[in-house]
């Protein structure tokens, strides 16, 4: 076959072209593009130009081919793939075609092996040719895109990770190895390195902290894992190990415990804890994924450790000599497997005669078939020896040897995730701060899924400020499992990750294939413990991280296609526009990131914006402000200025931000709608909302009257409800509660038709205020308010807040203090859940009114201070005036005239006051004037207050004005007139059922000894 580089003849078994030295590549196999965390290694010859000038071309070729072959063998021995040769440089990737959890460590081992192998080659070259070859190496870890390109004739990886590795190599000196920070973290604490830099690398805006590799220690689990922490949980598992050991002790026969679970689940930690607390005689060995280790090496390590602690085995004579020449020497079964097994049985029987012995073989999923066969034979032949074999493995071992636990002498000890409480306790230790348990985000604990190693890595990410990123260590660990899946199961897992943490079989089948085929694949994935069944025909990922890593390993193109198809699934459509819009939004986002912006992608953007906008509108009508803001922000971001549908999302977003207390942001968005939208209905909504947010501008009632015809013509029930509300509120502020009720009846009808919970709640809350301040007697008002709560309150938190506040005051008017405070407590709790900013003023304001009526002035004053502060912070002028008026009245009732005068001086001037507002303000000003001996002014203001109150239909406004007049007349010594005013106030309070007011009127009469 011809060489892919020069076209010359390539012998069938040649690894390199004899003509140009190009490495022979296998025929390209079309594999899907994917994203994965890999480690890239660049190795380049130093001074190759000078070398070529001093050697014969043929000699140079021979030397170069030997160099390439030597470097490639070191790379491939450690599990890497030679990606390409670039001049004198070798580029290798660890993680392609298959990811390994220790790819970073493999790459560093390869780099050290390359320099060591080159030293041996140099010893020969110096002798024969008088030359030396020097190399420099750069290694970097990170995410790349991998796949195949039919036109490129070789596998490709691309991304910033590759570029940084190449730049690190260029900065390394002769014989030096520079590694990136992610490589250092991913390879673990066994790496010996020193910092270099930070380096300014070409093409990188920020300096990169590099490290010079000095060496690589043995990958002892004790270096990799936090065995220094207090052991958490696992009491049933410890008890199972105790039971197995007790059984061995009692029956004097070998038993085996298979401790299995996902990587990082704490298998080794469990066994170490048990050995530490039970302290049996034991020896341990560990299987390795690659490297120089005989096939029985782990067993040899365990027996050697056992002999070190107990010299009894030395009495076994010939058997020990057999082992010493084979398994104990280099892990090989010399002189034969039969002789080795016989010798092991004899030595272990002797060792366990005084007391039981324990052999631990860790990482058995990497054990070769011979080692597993020998362990099976030992279990069978040590039938009278008290030996406990503990094999620690991942689930892959059970997949390769499914009958492993069928033997009755084997205990199956599977480890699931830690409980939530145990995970939180572990997190506290990992952070070295006990209080951190309360600060660890619930989402982080849920992502970890009870896996201690995952939790440790995620917590490390929070310390560096990258808690939402996937640590490379976790990606590599899970990515290795995912990468090794058969094609059908991998495809199924990919599509499931697009749907979400939990998914139905039918939904995955709707994305990628036959229902029965998908179910079979999911059952296979369940056996591998990547997913688990949760209900009939539904599965979920075993942890949030499994889903995250699976999704992160998909190419953006595959994700975009998956999300677009997912948006059309019946289950997604049934979940509502938020679910549909979320999938479409991500599909559009990935296509945009890939630089695809054709008509189909623009259509996709519009569909996403429409769905998110509808979802945001629904969330707003249900008073879910945080969700509404999120959805509407995303919808608005997808729309261009002036595009259809954009004004609605922008206007609703402005309303939401205003409701959340960010009035300035809301006002700017609403002004944008007024300035850019040609939609009459949207223009009307924005104008009405803006009138309520812009003090000193257009009156809400004027705006409502102006835009009402627009809403009527458009059949917009929500708009009509809002306009009716503003008109009703104006009537209420003027003390015309009968007229207000007519508008509120209309507002409620339209709000119910529009299914607008905020508008329904506002209408009902305003009705509650009319019940409190209007002519209906308190007992009947309480019944009506409770009936409204029973009719509209169930399932509607906003309604319960707005009705509970006036109901609390109504209860207080009848001295039912417990009921009043219970109403306010519920309103406060629900308001905290909802997030409406105005409730930070309204709740303490109503609570202050209740405490004032109860005669608890100190509590009322504190609540009014809270309400006043919140009103100032939010810029709500009307509520601020109300809170100040209540504070002034409380000060006057406490004889603090100076404080009251100071508060009243801060109120706006009376020109724009309604009759009800004027009656309240003038009555208070009259009392201040009387206290200051300004008699004429006091009498004039008191009379004006009574006259203004008479223009309202509110018995409370009239009663309060008369009561203020009685205070003024009494302080001026006009006893008879004061008594007449007090009797008028008392009659009005009594007719309403206002018990505290009636008592106050009687108090004035008592001062004069003229009780009616």
Q: What's the rounded overall pLDDT mean?
A: 86
Pairing-aware structural class of the strands and helices?
A: alpha/beta
CATH superfamily of the domain at 34-221: Nucleotide cyclase, GGDEF domain
Morphology: elongated
Kindly provide the radius of gyration, computed on alpha-carbon positions and rounded to a whole number of angstroms.
40 Å
CATH domain topology of the domain at 34-221: Alpha-Beta Plaits
CATH architecture of the domain at 34-221: 2-Layer Sandwich
Which percent band covers the strand fraction? Answer: 5-15%
Low-confidence stretches: 13-31, 148-153, 433-439
How many runs of DSSP E, i.e. beta strands?
A: 16
Q: Please give the share of residues in helix.
A: 55-70%
* Cα end-to-end separation: 122 Å
Number of helical stretches of at least 4 residues: 47
Question: What is the secondary structure topology, with strand pairs?
Answer:
Elements: E1 34-46, H1 48-54, H2 57-77, E2 81-86, E3 89-94, H3 103-128, E4 134-149, E5 154-158, H4 160-171, E6 177-179, H5 181-187, E7 191-199, E8 208-216, H6 221-224, H7 235-251, E9 255-260, H8 267-278, E10 281-286, H9 297-309, H10 318-324, H11 327-330, H12 337-351, E11 357-362, H13 369-381, E12 387-393, H14 396-400, E13 410-414, H15 420-430, H16 436-439, H17 442-448, H18 452-463, H19 472-483, H20 487-499, E14 502-504, H21 505-512, H22 515-527, E15 531-535, E16 538-541, H23 544-552, H24 556-566, H25 570-575, H26 577-593, H27 599-621, H28 625-638, H29 646-659, H30 663-676, H31 680-693, H32 700-714, H33 717-733, H34 737-754, H35 757-773, H36 778-792, H37 797-813, H38 817-834, H39 839-853, H40 857-874, H41 877-893, H42 897-905, H43 915-931, H44 935-950, H45 955-971, H46 975-992, H47 995-1007
Parallel strand pairs: 4-6, 9-12, 9-13, 10-11, 11-12
Antiparallel strand pairs: 1-3, 1-4, 2-3, 4-5, 6-8, 7-8, 14-16, 15-16
Helix pairs in contact: 2-3, 3-5, 7-8, 10-12, 12-13, 15-18, 17-18, 19-23, 20-21, 20-22, 20-23, 21-22, 24-26, 26-27, 27-28, 27-29, 28-29, 29-30, 29-31, 30-31, 31-32, 32-33, 33-34, 33-35, 34-35, 35-36, 35-37, 36-37, 37-38, 37-39, 38-39, 39-40, 39-41, 40-41, 41-42, 41-43, 42-43, 43-44, 43-45, 44-45, ...
């Amino acid at each position: 076959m011809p060489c892919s580089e020069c076209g010359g003849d390539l012998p069938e078994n040649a690894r390199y072209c004899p003509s140009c030295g190009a490495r022979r590549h296998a025929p390209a196999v079309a594999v899907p593009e994917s994203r994965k965390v890999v480690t890239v290694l660049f190795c380049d010859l130093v001074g190759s130009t000078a070398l070529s000038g001093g050697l014969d071309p043929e000699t140079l070729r021979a030397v170069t081919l030997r160099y390439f072959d030597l470097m490639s063998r070191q790379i491939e021995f450690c599990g890497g793939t030679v990606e390409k040769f670039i001049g004198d440089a070798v580029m290798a990737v660890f993680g392609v075609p298959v990811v390994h959890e220790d790819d970073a460590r493999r790459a560093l081992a390869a780099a050290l092996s390359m320099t060591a192998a080159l030293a041996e080659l140099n010893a020969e070259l110096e002798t024969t040719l008088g030359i030396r070859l020097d190399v420099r190496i750069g290694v970097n870890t990170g995410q790349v895109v991998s796949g195949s390109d039919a036109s490129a004739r070789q596998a490709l990886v691309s991304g910033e990770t590759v570029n940084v590795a190449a730049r690190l190599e260029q900065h390394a000196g002769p014989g030096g190895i520079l590694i990136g920070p992610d490589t250092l973290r991913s390879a673990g604490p066994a790496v010996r390195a020193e910092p270099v830099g930070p380096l300014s690398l070409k093409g990188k805006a920020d300096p990169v902290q590099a490290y010079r590799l000095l060496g690589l220690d043995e990958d002892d689990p004790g270096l990799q894992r936090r065995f220094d922490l207090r052991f958490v949980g696992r009491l049933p598992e410890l008890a199972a190990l105790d039971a197995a050991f007790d059984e061995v002790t009692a029956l004097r026969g070998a038993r085996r415990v298979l401790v299995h679970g996902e990587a990082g689940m704490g298998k080794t930690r469990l066994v170490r804890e048990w050995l530490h607390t039970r302290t049996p005689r034991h020896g341990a060995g560990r299987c390795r994924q690659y490297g120089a280790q005989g096939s029985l090496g782990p067993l040899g390590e365990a027996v050697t450790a056992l002999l070190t602690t107990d010299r009894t085995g030395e009495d076994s004579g010939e058997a020990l000599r057999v082992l010493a020449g084979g398994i104990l020497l280099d892990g090989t079964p010399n002189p034969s497997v039969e002789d080795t097994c016989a010798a092991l049985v004899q030595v272990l029987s002797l060792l366990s005669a005084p007391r039981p012995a324990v052999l631990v073989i860790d990482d058995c999923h990497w054990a070769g078939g011979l080692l597993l066969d020998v362990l099976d034979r030992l279990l069978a032949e040590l039938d009278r020896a008290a030996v406990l074999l503990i094999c620690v493995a991942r689930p892959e071992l059970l997949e390769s040897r499914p009958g492993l636990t069928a033997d009755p002498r084997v205990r199956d000890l599977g480890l699931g995730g830690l409980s939530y409480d145990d995970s939180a306790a572990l997190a506290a230790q990992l952070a070295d701060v006990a209080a951190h348990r309360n600060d660890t985000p619930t989402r982080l604990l849920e992502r970890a899924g009870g896996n201690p190693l995952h939790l440790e890595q995620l917590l490390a990410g929070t310390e560096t400020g990258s808690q939402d990123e996937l640590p490379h260590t976790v990606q590599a660990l899970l990515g290795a499992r995912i990468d090794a899946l058969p094609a059908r199961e991998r495809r199924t897992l990919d599509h499931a990750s697009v749907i979400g943490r939990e998914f139905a079989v039918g939904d995955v089948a709707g994305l990628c294939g036959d229902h029965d085929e998908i179910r079979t694949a999911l059952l296979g994935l369940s056996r591998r413990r990547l997913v688990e069944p949760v209900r009939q025909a539904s599965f979920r990922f075993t942890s949030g991280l499994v889903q995250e890593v699976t999704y992160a390993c998909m190419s953006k193109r595959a994700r975009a296609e998956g999300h677009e198809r997912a948006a059309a699934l019946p289950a997604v459509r049934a979940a509502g526009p938020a679910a549909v819009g979320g999938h479409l939004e991500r599909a559009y986002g990935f296509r945009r990131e890939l630089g695809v912006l054709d008509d189909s992608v623009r259509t996709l953007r519009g569909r996403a914006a429409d769905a998110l906008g509808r979802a945001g509108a629904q969330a707003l009508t249900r008073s879910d402000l945080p969700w509404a803001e999120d959805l509407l922000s995303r919808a608005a971001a997808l729309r261009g200025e002036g595009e259809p549908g954009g004004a609605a999302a922008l206007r609703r977003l402005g309303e939401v931000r205003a409701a959340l207390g960010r009035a300035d942001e809301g006002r700017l968005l609403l002004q944008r709608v007024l300035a850019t939208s040609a939609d009459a209905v949207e223009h009307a909504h924005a104008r009405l909302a803006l009138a309520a947010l812009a003090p000193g501008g257009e009156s809400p009632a004027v705006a409502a009257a102006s835009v009402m015809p627009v809403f009527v013509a458009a059949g917009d029930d929500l708009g009509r409800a809002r306009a009716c509300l503003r008109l009703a509120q104006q009537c209420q502020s003027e003390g015309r509660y009968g007229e207000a009720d007519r508008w509120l009846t209309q507002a409620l009808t339209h709000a119910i038709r529009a299914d607008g919970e905020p508008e329904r709640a506002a209408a009902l809350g305003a009705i509650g205020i009319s019940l409190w301040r209007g002519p209906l007697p308190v007992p009947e008002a309480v019944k009506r308010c409770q009936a409204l709560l029973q009719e509209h309150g169930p399932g509607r938190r906003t309604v319960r807040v707005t009705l509970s506040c006036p109901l609390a005051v109504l209860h207080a008017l009848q001295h039912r203090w417990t009921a009043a405070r219970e109403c306010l407590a519920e309103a406060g709790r629900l308001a905290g859940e909802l997030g409406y900013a105005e409730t930070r003023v309204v709740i303490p304001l109503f609570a202050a009114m209740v405490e004032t009526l109860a005669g608890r002035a100190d509590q009322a004053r504190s609540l009014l201070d809270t309400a006043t502060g919140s009103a100032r912070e939010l810029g709500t002028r009307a509520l601020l005036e109300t809170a100040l008026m209540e504070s002034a009245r409380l000060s006057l009732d406490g004889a603090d005239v100076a404080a009251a005068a100071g508060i009243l001086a801060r109120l706006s001037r009376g020109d724009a006051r309604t009759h009800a507002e004027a009656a309240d303000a003038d009555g208070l000003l009259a009392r201040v004037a009387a206290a200051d001996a300004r008699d004429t002014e006091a009498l004039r203001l008191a009379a004006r207050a009574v006259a203004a109150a008479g223009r309202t239909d509110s018995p409370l406004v009239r009663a309060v004005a008369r009561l203020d007049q009685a205070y003024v007349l009494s302080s001026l010594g006009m006893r008879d007139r004061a008594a007449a005013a007090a009797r008028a106030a008392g009659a009005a309070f009594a007719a309403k059922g206002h018990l505290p007011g009636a008592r106050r009127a009687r108090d004035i009469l008592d001062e004069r000894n003229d009780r009616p």
